[in-house]
Design a protein that fits this description.
The chain is an alpha/beta fold. It has three domains: about 140 residues, Elongation Factor Tu (Ef-tu), domain 3; about 120 residues, Nucleotide-binding domain of ferredoxin-NADP reductase (FNR) module (Rossmann fold), CATH 3.40.50.80; about 80 residues, Ubiquitin-like (UB roll), CATH 3.10.20. The protein is about 20% helix and about 30% strand. It has eight helices and 20 strands. It is globular, with a radius of gyration of 23 Å. It starts with 5 loop residues before the first helix and ends with a strand. The chain binds FE2/S2 (inorganic) cluster (FES). FE2/S2 (inorganic) cluster binds next to loops.
């Protein structure tokens, strides 16, 4: 039950300014104020951002789009960015990041959530989160952006990589982008094609937009392209050499696009975003190393394969993190000594004082970090 309507929650932000000042100066404890505010409405807080679920809509067999309206503490976002979302389950606070599929002028945002079998968060959100429920939102991050040049655009997506690209596409078309756009979306099977009805409607409405799907599961019989990304799928993309290319999907897919791009020596620009954790490189043999966590006064025996984030957590530490994919920067920490390896590129870094992202860095030697 709520004592005030959600519309008042959004309007309260300015009224709470004096309390915010008192909390900032140490006269009040923010947690005490929040405990009182949430009795009025579960989304009302002094500074933290909470949002109410306004709508749920299935957009593929395994993907749900949620429309969220945040309280007045929300500072806005850009299409193509990702949003960190928190929820508490059985007393454990969990967080996941989802791409924004729309940023609406009325302050609502949309995110799309793909079902992850065995996951701790997505099955709950898909099956149990209801309209009217309240979630905490974290910061937004991500640098994918619609190209500024008025040339053609090629969008390459695999799986839920469609979601940030759709956010950008919806906005670009709404703003009148008129150069050719080709969207090629790779999914395992027919039912995993997301937003089909909307994309087909956009295609009918905008003559500059061409949308195609490629089914990657073996033996799928369907019209259109079949199989994983290959340059053959781009054979009929007009003026490919003038296109700006955006690619988003699992790390393996993004790597294939990058290889194609480099081999093709196209003059335009390529933006990529991979949303799965980097895979271990087979060419790095397993070694034991020492990890020093300076602020926690801990030393640990570790290995040179797993990320510093995983290994810190395995030793009972709780480093701040968000995406776990090297995108959001919330796990950034200072390297004090030793050498770390970037799990995405294999590059080595050993300059003391250098900021490193724990989720995509593995120790290459004995390492001390400011954690
Ligand atoms: S958790 Fe997002 S960059 Fe490491």
């Amino acid at each position: 039950m709520t004592l005030i309507p959600f519309a008042w929650v959004r309007g309260c932000t300015r009224l709470l300014a004096p309390l915010r000042v008192l909390a900032a100066q140490g006269w009040l404890r923010e947690s005490d104020v929040d405990a009182g505010l949430k009795l009025l409405h579960p989304a009302l807080r002094l500074n933290r951002v909470f949002a109410r679920v306004v709508q749920r809509q299935w957009v593929a067999d395994d993907m749900l789009e949620l429309t969220l309206q945040a309280n007045g503490n929300w500072c806005g976002a850009q299409p193509g960015q990702h949003l960190q979302l928190f929820l508490e389950r059985n007393g454990v606070r969990l967080s996941r990041s989802y791409s924004l599929t729309a940023v609406q002028p009325n302050g609502c945002v949309q995110i799309a959530i793909k079902h992850q079998a065995g996951g701790r968060v997505s099955p709950y959100l898909l099956e149990h989160l209801a309209v009217g429920d309240v979630l905490e939102l974290g910061p937004v991050y991500g640098e994918l952006s619609w190209p500024e040049a008025h040339e053609g655009v090629l969008l390459l997506a695999a799986g839920s990589g469609i979601t940030p690209l759709l956010g950008l596409l919806r906005t670009a078309l709404a703003q009148g982008f008129s150069a050719p756009i080709t969207l090629l979306h790779y999914v395992r099977e027919q039912g995993q094609r997301g937003f089909v009805a909307e994309l087909q409607a956009l295609q009918a409405q905008h003559s500059n937009l061409q949308v195609r799907w490629s089914l990657t599961a073996a033996g799928v019989g369907a019209e259109g392209s079949v199989g994983r990304f290959t340059d053959k799928h781009l054979a009929d993309v007009a003026q490919l050499d003038q296109r700006r290319v955006l690619a988003c999907g699992p790390a393996g897919f993004v790597g294939q696009v990058q290889q194609w791009w480099q081999a093709a020596k196209l003059p335009g620009a390529l933006q990529v975003e991979a949303f799965t954790a980097p895979v271990l490189r087979a060419d790095v043999s397993l070694r034991e190393v020492r990890l020093g966590f300076a602020r926690s006064h801990q030393q640990a025996t570790a290995n040179n394969q797993l990320s510093l984030l995983e290994q810190a957590e395995a030793h009972g530490l709780k480093p701040a993190h968000g995406c776990r994919q090297g995108i959001c920067a919330s796990c950034t920490c200072t390297l004090l000594s030793g050498t770390v390896r970037d799990l995405r590129s294999g590059a080595l870094f050993s300059e003391p004082g250098q900021p490193i992202r724990l989720c995509v860095s593995a120790p290459h030697s004995d390492v001390d970090i400011d954690l």
